[in-house]
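Hey,

The postdoc asked me to send both predictions to you directly instead of through the lab channel. I've kept everything plain text so nothing gets mangled by the mail client. Protein one:
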Amino acid sequence: MKNIFFLSVGLFLSQLIQAQKIFTVSNQAYADVKVFVVDNQAYADLLVYKVSNQAYAGKNDGKWFFVSNQAYADKKIYFVDNQAYADLKIYFVNNQAYAGWKNNAKKHLLY
């Protein structure tokens, strides 16, 4: 009975603290999403802010925490060198207030 309680509480808390945890793979065959970093936010689908702690990461709102182990990642990404091969174009912002989707049609890529 005690184990069921703790399991229920753990599942509930994991839903509340679900973060956008990202892992960068070295081969595009292992990636969930291929990403290109644009040099102007006007061309981005998503404005990304890198948070320093996974507790501050968002849930598909552009606040990313980069994990060091793919087992802990919500999504695995691969950075491509040519935007023609990208599924998603991002721009890194310096303020978390600016993070978010500019192209909602691509939002499904990170769910």
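Protein two:
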Amino acid sequence: MALTKNQRRLRIKNRIRKIVSGTEARPRLTVFRSNKEIYAQIVDDVSGKTISAASSRDKDIAKAKGNKSEVAALVGKSIAEKALKAGIETISFDRGGYLYHGRVKSLAEGAREAGLKF
């Protein structure tokens, strides 16, 4: 029996997570994309803590007009600003099993523009 789309994504996600992990010096920026919204977290996997988070449901971003890719770029900029405030400059990017294009790519590019290095 063939895998469903979600099962396939979870397999890819697990394959990525075997390689990519966040430390205190270089935490992991993880992305979750639903049909309407996009979420990003910066996670330290050693201590198991979320350092900062941003999503398209945040009040300042939810008011913004534009398509979903433009909103994802705003989420990337927001998470980068929060990370820089927390003293984080370099991260490892976890695309969460999604292909690196569209909203995931625009989130990553927005974070790079705001000053995160990965």
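Summary for protein two, as requested: The chain has a mean pLDDT of 95.

Thanks,
C.
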